[in-house]
Specification:
By secondary structure, the protein is α/β, with parallel strands linked by helices. The chain contains 14 helices and eleven strands. It has two domains: 33 residues, no CATH class; 273 residues, P-loop containing nucleotide triphosphate hydrolases (Rossmann fold, 3-Layer(aba) Sandwich), CATH 3.40.50.300. Strands 1, 2, 5, 6, 7, 8, 9, 10 and 11 form a nine-stranded mixed β-sheet that branches. The longest helix is centred in the middle third of the chain and has 17 residues.
Length: 354
């Protein structure tokens, strides 16, 4: 029987939930010299004096999570793990996640998975055309919902009794489900596991980072739009990655202008008043993976659960995305032909929106 949020299976509802209620939850910014909530000095160091979280950290259980070795073993067959992050919502992070996964899966030799950790706003199943599916449980664990023979998805959306039901959970319960996605899902042998995260730096990000630390994270791809209000939060995301020890594969500027499909004229929809993603990447010494222009067909593809990457290969946005995917692979030390099928290096390498 498929697990659902209406009748959650034992580890989420009872035993795991009661265990996770003991975990600390930071409710205020850490002091400048914070030893960290997992440190033996948590709540006891000089820097902890006056911190609102002092008692929470001091009373929290110390030591590594006992399930981390189980997670590491479960993910032993996953070669590459990529986090997709954004500082602000609405920049196209989940959309980029689906296009990145479709791009990887366009190589029939690649096995690809998407793990949707946006527990309160799971949009990946809709974008992948599988929102009506449910999770199947086998004797080896939960089975991902397969979009195609080599592309699978896991999301809380598959557990909702009704499509429009809200998930109103506090941090510990969300963390428990993320742990189950890693510990109980039969991911099998995969080339790429792409992890979609909610905006910002919250419980979900801390959970994924701590759970995946031992099994290894290739790095994070940061998504932004050109305007300063988005870049402002991406700077915080970069700081989070540095503090959490997550390698940054690079920065992608999404919605980078609009290229007319008829005359190829480029229009700036969101003006880069401070230099956009390229300048931010330069200022922070982060690789710039590329700029993806707007295309109305991207939204249409997401609404219908179809692959923009497969259906509109002639789009400037698709050509830019291919270059982003190849550069992402290069940052992971992979050959471009391993990441994507054979491609023609023509004018797509010299685009007006770069």
């Amino acid at each position: 029987m498929a697990p659902s949020l209406e009748e959650p299976i034992q580890p989420v509802d009872d035993a795991l939930d009661s265990h996770l209620k003991k975990a600390p939850a930071l409710v205020a910014p850490e002091p400048e010299h914070c030893p960290g909530p997992e440190s033996q000095s948590a709540g006891k160091g000089d820097a902890c004096a006056g911190c609102p979280n002092q008692q929470i950290c001091a009373s929290a259980p110390k030591g590594p999570d006992p399930d981390i070795p189980v997670i590491t073993q479960r993910l032993a067959g996953v070669k590459h793990k990529i986090l997709v992050l954004s500082g602000k919502g609405g920049v196209g992070k989940s959309t980029f996640t689906t296009m990145l996964a479709h791009a990887f899966a366009s190589n029939a030799d690649n096995m690809v998975g998407i793990m949707d950790t946006d527990i309160c706003g799971p949009s990946i199943p809709k974008m992948m055309g599988v929102e009506a599916e449910t999770i199947h449980v086998t004797n080896t664990g939960w089975e991902p919902v397969w979009v195609s023979d080599n592309l699978g998805v896991m999301s809380v959306q598959f557990m909702l009794p009704n499509r429009d039901d809200a998930v109103i959970w506090r941090g510990p319960k969300k963390n428990g489900l993320i742990k189950q996605f890693l510990k109980d899902v039969e991911w099998g042998d995969m080339d790429y596991l792409v992890v979609d995260t909610p905006p910002g730096t919250s419980d979900e990000h801390l959970s994924v980072t701590s759970f995946l630390k031992e099994s290894g994270i290739d790095g994070a791809v940061l998504v932004t739009t050109p305007q300063e209000v988005s870049l402002l939060d991406v700077r915080k995301e970069i700081d989070f990655c540095h503090k959490a020890g997550i390698p940054i594969l690079g920065l992608v500027e999404n919605m980078s202008g609009f290229v007319c499909p008829s005359c190829t004229h480029q229009s700036e929809i969101f003006r880069a008043t401070t230099g956009g993603g390229r300048q931010l990447a330069k200022d922070t010494n982060v690789p710039f993976l590329g700029a993806v222009p707007l295309d109305p067909r991207i939204g249409m593809s997401c609404d219908f659960g179809e692959s923009f990457f497969d259906n509109f290969g002639d789009s400037p946005a698709c050509k830019a995305l291919k270059e982003v995917v190849r550069r992402t692979g290069e940052e992971m030390g992979l050959d471009a032909n391993h990441v994507l099928p054979d491609h023609e290096d023509d004018e797509s390498m010299d685009r007006p929106w770069h």
